[in-house]
């Protein structure tokens, strides 16, 4: 089965519009203006994610940044879930992860990916540790009563310039979010980022972890307490949260 359905609510741009693709692989998003790009879908059984799942260990930077040690698996709030890949890896390691995604289209893709993964034996036990919530992370954190040990942030896309190069598989996601950027100037984006970071500092019981491109400045130029640096990205860890608020 292959069905295309135009998404009228995705964008008001005449140059970039999107369509849903529903096939035997589940739900995907197609950029109509560039059909050479592979449709975007959330597939936790893909070759790339399967490799990450089978090779991930507590010795890797993301695990060290989160604070996994021995039999300790902190509870995590992923406030910028996106396609859910890092959350999936953290759940693979044994952590309970709450994912918050504000954009309804991305949330729909992520929900579809989680539902399909729940029907695959090797993946079901992992996605059981992942709880997806569609909504605004800042509002969610402000109302949250039971605080997580860690708040995880990956605010790469909102801060990227339009000309920035991204992987082909992520170009559709960037095109989708580009319309949101057009509605907000740099000052508004910066205020939103500041509100997100401050909400994270108030919510996390033990640490806030921010994923950054390797050579990009720390979030809001706030110096982290610890850094774990990988090949292409790094993880900035903020401790002593009460003193930062």
Count of individual domains: 1
The CATH homologous superfamily is named: Vaccinia Virus protein VP39
Helix content: 25-40%
Radius of gyration: 18 Å
Q: Say how many strands there are.
A: 10
Q: What value does the average pLDDT take?
A: 86
Please identify the top-level CATH class: Alpha Beta
How far apart are the termini? 52 Å
Could you tell me the strand content as a percent range? 15-25%
Query: What coarse outline follows from CA principal-axis ratios?
Result: globular
Query: And the CATH topology?
Result: Rossmann fold
Structural class: alpha/beta
Strands ordered across the widest β-sheet:
6-5-4-7-8-10-9
Low-confidence stretches: 1-14, 157-165
CATH architecture: 3-Layer(aba) Sandwich
Quaternary organisation: single chain
User: What is the helix tally?
Assistant: 10
Major β-sheet profile: 7 strands, mixed
The sequence of SSEs as H and E is EEEHHEHEHHEHEHHHEEEH
Topology at a glance:
Layout (H helix, E strand, L loop, with lengths): L2 E4 L11 E6 L2 E6 L15 H9 L5 H6 L9 E3 L6 H9 L3 E5 L2 H14 L3 H7 L2 E5 L2 H7 L6 E4 L2 H4 L8 H15 L3 H18 L3 E7 L12 E4 L3 E6 L2 H4 L1
Parallel strand pairs: 4-5, 4-7, 5-6, 7-8
Antiparallel strand pairs: 1-2, 2-3, 8-10, 9-10
Helix pairs in contact: 6-9
Q: In a few lines, what is going on in this structure?
A:
About 40% of the residues lie in helices and about 20% in strands.
Protein model, in words:
With 245 residues, this protein is an alpha/beta fold. The protein has a single domain, classed as 3-Layer(aba) Sandwich (Rossmann fold). It has helices at 47-55, 61-66, 85-93, 104-117, 121-127, 137-143, 156-159, 168-182, 186-203, 241-244; strands at 3-6, 18-23, 26-31, 76-78, 97-101, 130-134, 150-153, 207-213, 226-229, 233-238. The strands form 2 sheets. A 7-stranded mixed β-sheet has the order 6-5-4-7-8-10-9. It has a 3-stranded antiparallel β-sheet with strand order 1-2-3. The longest helix has 18 residues, at 186-203. It is globular and about 50 Å long. 34% of the residues are buried. Residues 1-14 and 157-165 have low confidence and may be disordered.
């Amino acid at each position: 089965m292959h069905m295309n359905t135009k998404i009228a609510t995705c964008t008001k741009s005449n140059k970039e519009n999107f369509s849903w693709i529903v096939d035997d692989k589940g739900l995907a998003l197609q950029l109509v203006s560039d059909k050479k790009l592979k449709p975007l879908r959330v597939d936790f059984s893909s070759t790339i994610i399967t490799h990450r799942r089978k090779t991930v260990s507590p010795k890797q930077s993301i695990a060290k940044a989160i604070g996994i040690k021995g039999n300790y698996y902190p509870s995590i709030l992923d406030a910028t879930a996106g396609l859910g890949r890092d959350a999936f890896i953290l759940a693979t390691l044994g952590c309970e992860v709450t994912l918050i995604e504000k954009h309804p289209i991305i949330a729909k893709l992520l929900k579809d990916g989680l539902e399909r993964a729940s029907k695959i034996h090797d993946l079901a036990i992992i996605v059981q540790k992942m709880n997806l919530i569609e909504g605004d992370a800042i509002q969610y954190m402000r109302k949250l009563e039971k605080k997580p040990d860690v708040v995880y942030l990956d605010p790469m896309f909102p801060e990227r310039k339009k000309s920035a190069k991204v992987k082909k598989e992520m170009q559709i996601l960037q095109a989708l979010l580009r319309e949101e950027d057009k509605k907000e100037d740099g000052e508004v984006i910066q205020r939103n980022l500041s509100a997100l970071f401050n909400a994270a500092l108030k919510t996390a019981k033990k640490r806030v972890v921010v994923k950054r491109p390797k050579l990009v400045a720390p979030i809001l130029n706030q110096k982290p307490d610890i850094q774990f640096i990988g090949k292409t990205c790094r993880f900035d860890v903020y401790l002593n949260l009460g003193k930062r608020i």
